[in-house]
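Closing statement on the magnesium ion sub-project.
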Amino acid sequence: MHEFLSGTDTLWLENLLEGSKNLPEWEKILDTFTDTDKKTDRLSTADKNKDLQHRVDALVETYRELGHLYAAINPLGSYMPPNLRYAWITQQGIGKELEASTYGLSDSEMEEVFIAPASFNPPRATLREIINRMNRVYTGSMGSEIVHIRNRPMRRWLIQQIENQDALKPWEDEELRSWQRDLIRAEEFETFIHSRFTGQKRFSLEGTDVLIPALRYLFTQAGRRNIKDIVIGMTHRGRLNVLTNAMRKPVTEILAMFEGLYFPHTYGGAGDVKYHIGQSTDFEIGDGRTIHISLVSNPSHLEAVDPVVQGKARGTQRLKDDETRKRVLPVLVHGDAAFSGQGIVAETFNISQLRGYRTGGTIHIIVNNQIGFTTASSDSRSTFFATDIAKVMPVPIFHVNGDEPPAVIRAIELALRWRQKFGQDVVVDIVGYRRLGHNEADEPSFTHPIMYELIRNHNTVSTIFGSLLDKNGVFTRNEQKIFRRSYLEKLKKAREEVKKLTDYHGFQTLKGSWSKIKRGYSFAFPYTGVPEKELREIAGKLIEIPDGFELHPKLKRFVENRRKMIETEVGIDWPFAESLAFGSLLREGQSVRLSGEDCGRGTFSQRHAVWWDISSKTPRQHTPLIHLARGNAKFSVYDSPLSELSILGFEYGYSLAIPEILVLWEAQFGDFANGGQIIVDQFISAGESKWARHSGLVLLLPHAYEGQGPEHSNAYLERYLSLCAENNMQVVNPSTPAQYFHVLRKQQIQKFRKPLIVMSPKSLLRHPNARSPITDFCSGSFQTVLDDPEPPEETERLAICCGHLWYNLVSSRRELIAENPKSSARRTRIIRLEQIYPFPEEALRNLIRESPETKSFIWAQEEPANRGAWNFLARRLFDISGEHWLYAGRAESASPASGSHKKHEEELSNLIAETFGTNKYGRMK
Ligand SMILES: Cc1ncc(C[n+]2csc(CCOP(=O)(O)OP(=O)(O)O)c2C)c(N)n1
Ligand SMILES: [Mg+2]
């Protein structure tokens, strides 16, 4: 046990001591061995042998369960600062679980032959042999946590693999030398940058340098096992080192960034710091073969990239038809503090085996330097190991000493085998230290003087491993020196080259599957109408009930309603418009993927994308849209777990992999999207500007003020608008089913990809007036603004609004005019702003110009004045009209909406009155 390594809670130890009812199984076994000598004296020889065998078995089981707690995994040794808690624990005699005497086994039994663990061949061995092997495999430089894996065949497989390590082929000299070369490169790269670019942050890898040979081994072995693609997410720590030394990004490119020869201007975006930018490489694995490695760009927000990597890996699996998920491998490299601290890690584990989100297992590598910035492990987590959170899943965890490259590589090898065999995640916890401060300008010994005194006196891993290789004649000191010098020369030469450069173009963008996609944004929207015959065919398929399939009675009505929508003049409603959009895209060979909480049925029971046969005793379902797909297209809809952050991240990642799939994420209610805000702020809105990565992800966010209280009214439109700039994304609030249909189709048909944020409806889903005639679907395209369908003969007041409010305003106008034909409502023209961003300046200006006699200009919104689009639009409306715009809406409010339905109604009346300049519904403006 090591103070640096461990968190505060040693529950397992306390359980042990207090003899609680929750004792682990093995301790109950221990209890049976108390007072052992007396008991065995009375046994026959056969029973005595059985009893001894029982004790040996118990000892072996204990190694499997607790061996990792005794493993020599900490390069800083078992140094322990004075600590009362620890003193208390040691005084209780903990630490004897692996001693043979604890099981009543004495020295005299050491040479006796027992039935050996199943991993032994031959199946019998002396107790000494058994103990020696157990010590070597469980308490050496690698500790394995496996007993939480309840699936017995899986656990047995792991035990076999771990206990049979001795039988593995020994490493070849060239392999050992190549790791040492990697370690030398890793070390020299850091010291070179340190001395040449003082003060520039690089988040040095020193202390966990072994990550470089570990990753290179993983890439090579993955490639040799027919894995074609690796998608990696990793943090800041050692990222530049990984880029150049593991992924072989030319070192000149890294140095160019350090020289300030940076390139965002060549792409037109803001760019990002060097240790956040992604990279794609074809990594050579020998014999002229390569494996594609894609390091995903990420923001500073630790671990946020985890589900993005999962989504991208899943998308790549789809792209490459990797149905077994054995050819595309996700890898996540974490820091110890972030891994245990960030909730998204647990969310990502939770989705790892779900049908809509599984990726066939992720290899997690923890770069465990036993510290997080200045925070000690004991303040970082309540668990013993940094990795305990991974035990939410049956995931093996290998803790390895970072000073022992062969142990680390064995762990990576085992992890890869496990992943390829079982399709489950696995964790390799590389325990090292951090030689410098958090960044290189930081002083670590302010807060950790004892640990840093140890580190100062600790040799680098290349020195430790290098002398071992030298001693064994594998790679002599002199040969290593020559290699070190030649690498340093390469670095110096690269620096000289870079000094001569004046500019540098480094962004990899719109390559591979993205090569047909264009940059930029255009208001020249593509034609998105669908010929009526085709549309009717699609609609027909959507209401076809398979033979012998019995629908729920209410669903039968749902289908009948849809039939009426196409056979009569009632018009198409919102949910049907969506199905028609999806169906038409699928017929055109474009895939559609929709995920979100309860999105199969739809939160508001509106979608019913999946039907269930209520007469069938076994689950039988029918998804009409699946049957519309042509070519390689596919329709998938997944009810997601209740995790907005990971699922939004996942879908964003998926959208990065393939531009040909319409990827949609639906929030249960728009306000829950706030759980995914990190993904919105740092990936969706800024990914193109920071990393030249495009995404066509669609967010469906139910939004409207309908008297439901502070939550479930507001999708925080203002948050999205505050992130809008440089045409980075599209924010729409369509008011008709046909508009929704066109905007969804446009998202796929247009040549560029920009995220699309849709303020989507709730009550409008069933509103009898929220219907569009079928002809509206058969031609045209999405309109950014919609004129008043019943414009006044003369316009005195010009009101602009969006979405749901329009229905309130139009019906109120009718009522007002009916009551008083002279009402100012009669002279109020209502324009709908369907797309708020990119702001349709020209279209809106043209409409406004059509009413030059207008005296009052009003922006009407449902949201309080500090929310909604008002703050975003006030300046823009003035700019396009030169007019001062009045605000009709709720007063500024700390809460999104009133909890009282009555108050909601009053507020609505007021805003309607303000819009029309009447006092019918409230005060005059
Ligand atoms: C969500 C989040 N919170 C805080 C930070 C600031 N921060 C950057 S690195 C770091 C320490 C991370 O420790 P660890 O995960 O152990 O990685 P290490 O730097 O030790 O390699 C912190 C707190 C951040 N980047 N992201
Ligand atoms: Mg750390």
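The first helix runs from residue 11 to 18. With this model delivered, the sub-project is considered complete and its resources will be redirected to Aim 3.
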